Amino acid sequence: MVNMKKTVDLSSPVFDYDDFLDRIDGDVDLLKEVVQIFLEDTPRLLTNLYSGIKSGDAEAVERAAHTLKGATANISAKRLQQLSQHIQLALKENEAANIEPFIDHFKENYKKLDQVLRDYLV
């Protein structure tokens, strides 16, 4: 069984600005561009995730979690990357019934990330 307390570091940053900036060689304009794209594209991914959960479509949820894992990794949103990874892992291990805590934390932390990113772009 996937155990969130053992597998997700909820103290990891919602957005690791320094890590992201380092990975793109300090290009602040590129950082802003990628963040803007993330903010534009992610609502569609979240819709796919939540509608898959509502309809019981584990394959759609896993696919959305996988895509979200990559998108959050790209911008150094480490906590959401871990949560996405563990949603995906739980589904691969046929433990769909155990993803609710991950989803709850994902929703909560996505709101935080969204606000941090929007504040940064202002």
Describe the protein:
This protein has 122 residues and is mainly α. 76% of the residues lie in helices and 0% in strands. The longest helix is centred in the middle third of the chain and has 28 residues, at 28-55. The model has no long low-confidence stretch (mean pLDDT 89).
Oligomer: single chain
Average pLDDT for all residues:
89
Question: Could you give the order of the helices and strands?
Answer: HHHHHH
Shape: elongated
Q: Spans of 5+ residues with little confidence (pLDDT < 50)?
A: none
DSSP strand tally: 0
- Biggest sheet layout: none
Q: What is the overall number of helices?
A: 6
Write out the CATH superfamily name: HPT domain
The count of domains is 1
Which keywords apply here?
122 residues; mainly alpha; Four Helix Bundle (Hemerythrin (Met), subunit A); 76% helix
Topology:
Elements: H1 4-7, H2 17-23, H3 28-55, H4 58-74, H5 78-92, H6 100-121
Helix pairs in contact: 3-4, 3-6, 4-5, 5-6
Structure in a nutshell:
This protein has six helices and no strands. The protein is mainly alpha-helical and 122 residues long.
